[in-house]
């Protein structure tokens, strides 16, 4: 039995706006010992938004089902509040209150009560007067709603429970610089040996417990080092030196790494033991180019995977241009400009043969790249594929789970994105699906992450990214 938290006057009463439930239906169980109040207008707006196949409509239906389960499965009186500890299996120990009476509150004349948001504000004002000894707080994802609430002297908060990180500066970068005295403090009892062209170091020291599996380490100076952590065992770690993809002899489909982070990324993309790779970085850092080069090499030369599958979220930056004609691939073509641009670069590195040779190479490449829409991914299984998810910052954690669980045996999944360019409503840098997987997959033996920092597109693009 979960021990119920003592009910005090300081237990807060949270009033839920509709957008919180449509963003996260499980929010009903996320407020621990505090009580929840759902206004009748919230239920009306859920009802108005339940139709359709969008993520918002699915969440609205899910929230309604959860409330139905809570209300119908409880012997408690709705007026006195319904205990949440049973339905939530101990996650929440507060009560759920539904609005059961008409509330008449004189709102300022400038706020018409016909509007749903203002109706909810009227409910919050009524509750604040009725429970004057208790904190009554409106929870809303709508910034303007929160501003209006504060202007009326009411408490209002954003919904934070879905945030993976409060500050994206704390997000795992995938690499770290070793301190200058690293070998002095970690060299005692160190083992070192060579296998093939790699050097291995098994060492222990104060930094060893902090290092994560597949984290990249570098040290500049007289004896520069680039290595990654292959295993961690208590206070000791095993480091392995990297393949130098900056050298022309190790080029990947004619592409060489132009900076340190690109070299780290190639080591992840080309390693068959790594099943899941995430690459973050601003425009022009080379995410798509590196991934496509690695994919083509492993599909056409190494025959490790049967084909490349590329998908992305179709969220327009400007006005939508309406329905697009054609097959699934043809409909996705306008969204795949980045793919075509990078193929032009890669096709230019495919060797000699003149125009005919390049045209033949391009046809071969295009025959091995399939473009798929996210809308038809549910229920599929990809076996022995190189799956690229572009613009992954626009995915919710739930959508990201749906996509990654498509991976069958022998499939590698690569997620690319820039969390500073989120176009999906209600999604922030802290709650994006990309942030979610970077945080959850770190320190897993078969996954790796790199945040690319230096732009390599052009001096104009780099300068624009800095000053605009």
Automatic annotation (TrEMBL):
Q: Which domain of life is it from?
A: Bacteria
Q: Which residues form the PIN domain?
A: 12-147
Query: What is a GO molecular function of this protein?
Result: ATP binding
Look up keyword Ligase and say if it applies.
no
> What GO cellular component entries does it have?
cytosol
Keywords in alphabetical order, please: ATP-binding, Nucleotide-binding
Is the keyword Ligase in the record? no
Name the InterPro entries for this protein.
P-loop_NTPase, PhoH, PhoH2-like, PIN-like_dom_sf, PIN_dom
Task: List the Gene3D superfamilies.
Answer: 5'-nuclease, P-loop containing nucleotide triphosphate hydrolases
Which SMART domains does this one have? Answer: PINc (SM00670)
Q: Indicate the family of this protein.
A: Belongs to the PhoH family.
Q: What is this protein called in UniProt?
A: PhoH-related protein
Name its species.
Answer: Aromatoleum aromaticum (strain DSM 19018 / LMG 30748 / EbN1) (Azoarcus sp. (strain EbN1))
Q: What is the lineage of its organism?
A: Bacteria, Pseudomonadati, Pseudomonadota, Betaproteobacteria, Rhodocyclales
């Amino acid at each position: 039995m979960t021990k119920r938290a003592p009910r005090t006057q300081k237990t807060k009463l949270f009033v839920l706006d509709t957008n919180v439930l449509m963003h996260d239906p499980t929010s009903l169980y996320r407020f621990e010992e505090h009580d929840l109040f759902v206004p009748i207008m919230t239920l009306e707006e859920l009802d108005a938004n339940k139709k359709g196949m969008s993520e918002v409509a699915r969440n609205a239906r899910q929230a309604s089902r959860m409330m139905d389960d809570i209300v119908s499965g409880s012997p408690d009186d709705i007026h006195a509040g319904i205990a949440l500890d049973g339905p939530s299996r101990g996650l929440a120990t507060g009560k759920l209150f539904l609005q059961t009476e008409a509330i008449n509150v004189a709102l300022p004349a400038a706020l018409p009560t016909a509007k749903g948001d203002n109706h909810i504000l009227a409910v919050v004002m009524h509750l604040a007067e009725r429970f004057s000894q208790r904190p009554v707080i409106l929870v809303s994802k709508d910034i303007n709603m929160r501003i209006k609430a504060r202007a009326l002297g009411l408490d209002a908060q954003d919904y934070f429970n879905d945030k993976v990180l409060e500050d994206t500066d704390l997000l795992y970068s995938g690499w770290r610089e070793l301190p200058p005295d690293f070998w002095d403090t970690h060299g005692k009892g160190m083992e070192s040996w060579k296998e093939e062209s790699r050097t291995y170091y098994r060492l222990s020291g104060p930094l060893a417990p902090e290092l994560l599996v597949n984290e990249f380490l570098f040290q500049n100076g007289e004896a520069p080092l680039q290595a990654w952590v292959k295993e961690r065992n208590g206070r000791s770690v095993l480091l392995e030196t990297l393949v130098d993809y900056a050298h022309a002899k190790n080029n990947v489909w004619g592409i060489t790494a132009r900076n340190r982070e690109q070299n780290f990324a190639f080591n992840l993309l080309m390693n068959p033991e790594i099943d899941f790779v995430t690459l973050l970085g601003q425009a022009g850092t080379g995410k798509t180019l590196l991934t496509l080069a690695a994919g083509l090499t492993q599909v056409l030369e190494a025959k490790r995977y049967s084909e490349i599958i590329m998908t992305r979220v179709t969220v327009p930056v400007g006005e939508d241009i309406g329905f697009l004609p054609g097959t699934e691939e043809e409909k996705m073509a306008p969204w795949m400009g980045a793919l075509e641009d990078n193929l032009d670069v890669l096709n230019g590195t495919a060797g000699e043969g003149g125009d005919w040779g390049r045209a033949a190479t391009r046809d071969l490449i295009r025959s091995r790249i399939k473009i798929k829409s996210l809308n038809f991914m549910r229920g599929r299984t990809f076996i022995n594929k190189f799956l690229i998810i572009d613009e992954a910052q626009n995915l919710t954690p739930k959508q990201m789970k749906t996509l990654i669980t498509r991976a069958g045996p022998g499939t590698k999944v690569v997620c690319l994105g820039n969390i500073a360019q989120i176009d999906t409503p209600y999604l922030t840098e802290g709650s994006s699906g990309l942030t979610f997987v970077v945080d959850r997959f770190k320190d897993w033996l078969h996954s790796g992450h790199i945040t690319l920092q230096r732009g390599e597109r052009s001096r104009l693009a780099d300068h624009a990214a800095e000053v605009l």
